[in-house]
Design brief:
Helix 5 links the parallel strand 5 and strand 6. The chain starts with a helix and ends with a helix. It contains 15 helices and 8 strands. Strands 1-2-4-3-5-6-7-8 form an 8-stranded mixed sheet, with helices on both faces. With about 325 residues, it is an alpha/beta fold. The model has no long low-confidence stretch (mean pLDDT about 90).
């Protein structure tokens, strides 16, 4: 009997130590977040949308604005897109939209259905001083938002430049993405309490491959790491996954916007969990009246590895369709 009591005491002491350790880590994490917020303020404009602040980063000049929409889970869209936007900003105006729970934007309690996200994006751009019509530059799952935007407000979309963009069919035919939800939830809580701050350099580079890029300054890399701890696998990002099926169904009730020019830059699909990725993207853009695609020997983040090619091809394409 005494042995059982001793075992229970050991277990309780062990659990207490674990709880105390996690509490200390969480307090330290929140302390660091406050300091990092002061050290690395938002480089763009913060505008109030649905009781939360959204960050819009804009640079360059031009009559047409290229609006960059980040892929699901991209913790710092402003810096993530930098290898590409810095090669375009001298010819066109660029704006990066950081949705709720991304980058320097605050988290939101609003649902992540496609209508809510689109209206928030449109309002945030307007409040930040940007005016359409726009050329949309979506990466990954934001391809859905860009397509829906072109369906719902065709006069506001001059063209879509897709950076390995998701299209309805790839999500409709795959269940693998939803099976990742448990793993994502676990990672969400690990990041929320700050355990990510104890990752080694190798693990940091695995999560932030752009950290090795010569395209970024040392300060860019410091900001990227700081925002990674703030805006990785947030509740808003997880909620977007919950709404994928509903969002795809809503898009599929409308006709494909065949009159909107589109150019898709498509990765080799090797690091995408959805099968037939390349084929589905090229099939979609092939029915567009002025649609083009280019296969790239690249990972899913095509704008990291092939920014020079994409920038040059984008400029040529936009001139070809009369956007200067």
């Amino acid at each position: 009997m005494n042995t059982i009591k001793i075992i229970w005491k050991i277990i309780l002491v062990g659990l207490s130590l674990i709880v105390a350790f996690l509490l200390i880590i969480t307090l330290y994490h929140n302390y660091k977040l406050r300091n990092e917020y002061q050290e690395y303020p938002a480089p763009g404009k913060l505008v109030e949308i649905n009781n939360h602040k959204m960050h819009i980063f804009s640079r360059g000049q031009g009559n047409i604005t290229l609006v960059f929409l980040a892929g699901s889970g991209t913790s710092n869209p402003t810096i993530d897109f930098k290898p590409l936007w810095k090669k375009i900003k001298d010819d066109y105006r660029i704006s990066i939209v950081e949705k709720a729970g991304y980058g320097w934007s605050e988290k939101s309690s609003s649902p992540r259905d496609i209508d809510t996200m689109l209206e928030e994006t449109k309002k945030a751009l307007k409040l930040s001083g940007e005016n359409g019509p726009y050329v949309l530059v979506p990466h990954s799952m934001s391809g859905l938002e860009a397509i829906y935007w072109a369906q719902k407000y065709p006069d506001e979309v001059k063209a879509i430049i897709g950076l390995d963009p998701g299209v309805p069919d790839v999500y409709e035919q795959s269940f693998d993405l939803f099976s990742q939800k448990t793993k994502l939830n676990v990672m969400h809580y690990i990041l929320k309490i700050g355990l990510s701050r104890f990752m080694g350099r190798e693990e940091v580079e695995k999560n932030l491959p752009l950290i090795k890029s010569k395209e970024l300054t040392r300060e860019d890399k410091e900001k990227m790491i700081a925002i990674f701890h703030k805006s990785s696998i947030t509740k808003n990002m997880l909620n977007e996954v919950d709404y994928i099926k509903e969002n795809v169904e809503k898009i599929n009730t409308n006709a494909i916007p065949v009159d909107i020019p589109m150019y898709f830059f498509i990765s080799d699909g090797s690091d995408v969990i959805i099968p037939n990725w390349k084929e589905q993207l090229s099939k979609f853009v092939s029915v567009i009246n002025f649609g083009k695609f280019k296969y790239l020997d690249s990972s899913h983040y095509v704008h990291h590895e092939k920014s020079e090619v994409i920038a040059n091809e984008t400029k040529a394409f936009l001139k070809e369709i009369g956007i200067n």
